[in-house]
Amino acid sequence: MSNRPDIGDLVPDIALETPGGASVKPSAYRGKPLVLFFYPKDDTPGCTTENKDFSALAGDFAKAGVALLGVSKDAPARHQKFIAKHDLAVSLASDPIVDGLADALGIWVEKNMYGRTYMGMERTTYLVDAEGRIVRVWRKVKVKDHAAQVLEAARAL
Questions:
Q1: Helix (H), strand (E) at residue 128
Q2: Where are the catalytic residues (predicted)?
């Protein structure tokens, strides 16, 4: 998709739902950098590892003054169970199924597995500066060492 926001663009300010049922927009984080990481599904192997890795480094991100927000299409109640089961230290949010932030970013895409075509989240991470502009994008993320790489880039802001 050529019209998806990229480096230098403002992150679309589309509301997400927190596990507690509140609404949060990316603009709520203005004034400090934000790591916005999108992942396919709670409690699957790669997504669990990614969330645990970001959780393990949450204190380091906080020391660097950087907020963390993980996003999937899972329902808020599912996020609550996922956080509790794995003792996650990152904030999670649910993206609306239709016309959500992932759609606006062009990362809610057609996927193909075992010959079956379906819509799914492309694992993508955005580093957003204090003004809400995208400064770095990791597309089709490989989970191993990803959180550490993002922390290194965030510290450089």
A1: strand 124-128
A2: 47 (cysteine sulfenic acid (-soh) intermediate)
| Burial 54-75, CB ≥16 within 10 A → b, else e | bbebbeebeebebbbbbbbbbe
Percent of the chain residues topping a pLDDT of 90: 96
Burial class (CB in 10 A: 0-12, 13-18, 19+), 129: middle
Whether pTM > 0.85 for this model: the answer is: yes
Distance CA 106, CA 126 (A): 13
Catalytic residues: 47
CATH of the domain at 82: 3.40.30.10
| 66 occurs within a structural domain | yes
| Residue 7 within a domain | no
Q: For residue 111, what are the domain limits?
A: 28-155
Count of domains observed in the chain:
1
Report if residue 56 sits inside a domain: yes
Position 128 scores a pLDDT of 98
> Tens of pLDDT along 101-111?
999 999 999 99
